[in-house]
């Protein structure tokens, strides 16, 4: 399912029940990879790849409101994408998320008209 708006495409990434609280899953769409998180106050999404080296954050650990990279244990704030601890120093890009009818919808960048 995909609904296009002016700036983003809303894409069904998963069902709300697919992610336990304090967990993360991988979602690939249109050649890009994302990490979708569930923490105590809701669902969030970011780029899937760590900004330090090529490790997918879905293989990492959610600790409170942070995702820990599985490769070198750098941490990012999940809601903001802010780099929180070395070796990561470049923030993650985050994406809007909304929940409708039991589905977690990810707002991915709308494709340029061809």
Show the helix and strand layout.
Layout: E1 2-4, E2 8-15, E3 23-29, E4 32-39, E5 42-47, E6 61-63, E7 66-68, E8 75-77, E9 83-85, E10 94-95, E11 97-100, E12 103-109
Antiparallel strand pairs: 1-2, 2-12, 3-4, 4-5, 5-10, 6-7, 7-8, 8-9, 11-12
Structure report:
- By secondary structure, the chain is mainly beta.
- Helix content is 0%, strand content 50%.
- A hairpin with a 5-residue loop joins β8 and β9 (83-85).
- The chain is globular.
CATH names the topology as Rieske Iron-sulfur Protein
CATH class: Mainly Beta
In CATH terms, what is the architecture?
A: 3-layer Sandwich
Give the CA-CA distance, first to last residue. 21 Å
Most strands sheet = 4 strands, antiparallel
Mean of the pLDDT scores? 91
Helical stretch tally: 0
Q: What does this entry show, briefly?
A:
With 114 residues, the protein is an all-beta fold. It has no helices and 12 strands.
Which features does this protein show?
Rieske Iron-sulfur Protein, 114 residues, single chain, mainly beta, 50% strand, 4-stranded antiparallel beta sheet
